Structure formats: C-alpha cells, structure tokens
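Holo prediction. Input below; ligand is magnesium ion.
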Amino acid sequence: MTPAAAVRAAIPRDVADLLRALRSDGFGAYVVGGAVRDVIAGRVPADWDLATEATPDQLRSLFPNATYENRFGTVGVPTNGGMVREITTFRADSDSGDGRHPDRVTFLPRIEGDLARRDFTINAVAFGLAPGASRRADPVADGAIVDPHGGIDDLANGLLRAVGDPAERFVEDALRMLRAIRFVARFNLTVEPGTAAAIKRDAPLAARLSGERIGAEIEGILAAAHPARALQLAADLGIFAAIAPALAAEWNAEVGTRVEEVGNAALPDAPDPLGRMSELLQPIADDEDVAALLESWRRPRATVTAIQQIRALDRAVSVAEQEADRGNLDGAALRIVAAATTGDPRDAARQVRRRVAAGRAGRSAAALLSACTQGDEQQLPAAANDLAVGGDQLVARLGRAPGPWVAALLAQLVDDVAHRRVTNEKEKLLARSEQIVATEGRDPIA
Ligand code: ATP
Ligand code: MG
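Structure of the complex:
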C-alpha cells in the first residue's frame, strides 16, 4: 500500500467530515503530523490533527460549537464521536525568548510553510488537498501526500532528522531534543549525524526546560518499545548531564539495556513503567537524590513513593538472593517483606523478575522466584491482615492488656503460617499463641 492509500484508509469518519466541511468552504484541508507518521509506520495514531489556512475566526464561523484553545491558532471541534479534533491554522512560530514558547505566530497561506516549522521530517508530512483545489475534489479520495522534507523516506530508513537547519532548531525549542530521544525510543531510529551534532552542542539548553515537561518526556521514553539505544544516546549527547546530573555522573553502558529488558513485552508484568523508572535511576545510590530528581520532574507523590518502595524491595531481594546462595532459601520471608513494603506480597516475585530481566540477579534468583510464586499461587499469608485471628482475639484469649506485644505476636504468627509451622485457622493460631507466650515467658515479645 502506498503511504497515501494507507492514510486514506485510516482517516476516521469524523475527521473526514471535518476535512470535507473545510473543502466545502474552499479551504485547504489536511491531516498532519503524528497521525500521518503513525499510519505510515503501521501504527494506530493516538490523535488526528488537522491543518488549514482558514483563520481561527473563520474556523469558528464554520464550526459554531468549536472552542478556541489558545492564541496560537488552534481550535477544538467537538465531533459526533464525543471527541474533540484540533484544527490549526497554517503558521510560522516566531523566535522565543525562553526556548520554548513562541511569543508571536504568523498565519500562512500554504501547508508547506507550516510543515517547515515542525520539528522532525517524520513529523512534517501532511495528507489532503491544497487551498484552491477544485471544489469537487474530495479531500480523502483525492487527497495527496505533502512531504517536502523527505519524512517518508527517513521513516522507511529509520532516520530521525531535524527539519531545516538543525543548528537552529534546538535553540528555538530545547524540548525538541527530548522529543528526539522519545521518537528514537518509539520507532527505533538512528539520529542523522547533523541533527545529533546539533543536539550535542545544544544539550545544556535542556536544563532550562520545565521539570514537568522533562518528566513527561522521560515517561514517554520509558513507555516506548526501544528505550535502550535512546537512553544511551541521551547520555552520549549530554542530555542527562543537563536534566539529571546525578544520573549522568553514575551512568554506565548497561543502564539502557536494563531498562529495556524490565517490562519488555514478553514479561508477565509488562508494561512496567515504574519498574523501568526505578531501573533508570538505579545507578543513583542515594534514595534522597532519587526522590529529589523525581520531584524536580514534578512526578506525582504516588510515583515517588512507589519508586522508593521498589528500591527498598530491591535491596531486600538482593539480600535474600545472597542468603539463598548460602543455602537459606526463604521465599516466604521475602513475601512478608514485600507485603510490609508495598502492601502486596506478589511484589516479591515481581522484583525478582525485574532483577532477572535486568541481568542484576544473583545465582539463586530462579529458586527464589519459584518459592515466591508458589506462595502467591497458594495465597499464603504474608501480613497480619491475612491471618484468621485478629489482635482483639489474642488479647481476649491471653487475658493480657493490649500493648506492643500484640503486633509482635501477630508478626510471629504470620511468620509461622507463611513457613507452614501452623495452619491459618483461628483455633490453631490461638493455641499457637498460648504456646509462644508460655515458652517465651511472661513478657516474651513486647
Ligand atoms: P505523539 O504521538 O506523542 O502525540 P506527535 O508527533 O503527534 O507525537 P504532538 O505533541 O501531538 O506530537 O504534536 C503534533 C505535531 O506538532 C508533531 O507531529 C509535530 O509536527 C508538531 N510539533 C509538536 N511539538 C513540536 C515542537 N516542539 N517543535 C516543532 N514541532 C512540534
Ligand atoms: Mg500527537
């Protein structure tokens, strides 16, 4: 199938209707950017963006229910699918002071000018009909590809290339450097040498980007299919030195591969964004430094907490592997640690699998993993909540005043049940408690 035929076949009905509405008023009408790229790459686009020379005012009179999204000429048109499709007026961005937000836009008469402002050739391809085309022409059936920068060839050849002079493009907008890394990770691209040289030169500018934008791009990179080479590239080109100095200082050639192996499609926990994030930051030794970096990237509290839990659990697994090497294989204990750390005993097996995938696991990891998964399958208790008795019942049966001994005794019972020294039945556990208290004396475990 030709690229034009592929795009033609993929355009959703509501998008086709919008293109036809633009045509009926004589305007040029195109789909452009990420959607065209994704279809040609054989993927399902996340969103379809349209472009035309119609001004925002003209668009609003053509689509009365449209919302004006920003002062840069984008309107949102609600369509019957309950979606909002974005239509942008062909435009050129003026230079921006902060390397991010254009302070002025100029509307343009033709798509070619609009494509020239886009970041990479693979993102600078459009499909549709030009202003002034016959009104009888249908923008889908008669539409054509517009690809002045060779984006289709670059995509076929696996090349990421800046549109225009790469020496200017990252100074205009430093975010493009992180987008470059993300597209490399998503489409497994090689960066064209001139583009790579410009990124290397301009990488320090990435330090000025907002933490929020950086964090979102990093997550995009980690969610992609091929982060290994992309992350290595970010290190080689000096991106990490700009946005994550603590990581750059500890970087080694294995990190990218490890990240890619964690949460790869073949694993039971895939996708695994948190596992990948923690693997990326694993070279940083200090938990506080990791938290500070994630906070500077404006990641949610829950993410920071989850990463810290994974790091704590990873250390516990490492110790458990070493113990297992010495002959003390104890999956039950590891599941108890996992339950106490994250609230889910199955995170023990998850973390062993991550270490195995990343190639960081010890000799006994396989044995430890099967011990953990056995416990998961049999749903062996790993926390006090799993027990068939509660603290109140212990207090009543033993006739002692409540105190710290209750939690300690419950922990002892969890350990006993998890190691099959007693079954998880109320009477058995109460009897076991009496026995523990009797053998350990009057104030045994407070
Ligand atoms: P995604 O699949 O992540 O949405 P995308 O390429 O569609 O990728 P968007 O942020 O949706 O990215 O942007 C849509 C289009 O706008 C891009 O394909 C590109 O042509 C253009 N674009 C986006 N960000 C920039 C930028 N920083 N500089 C230049 N052009 C950009
Ligand atoms: Mg997009």
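The chain has a mean pLDDT of 95. That is the main takeaway for now.
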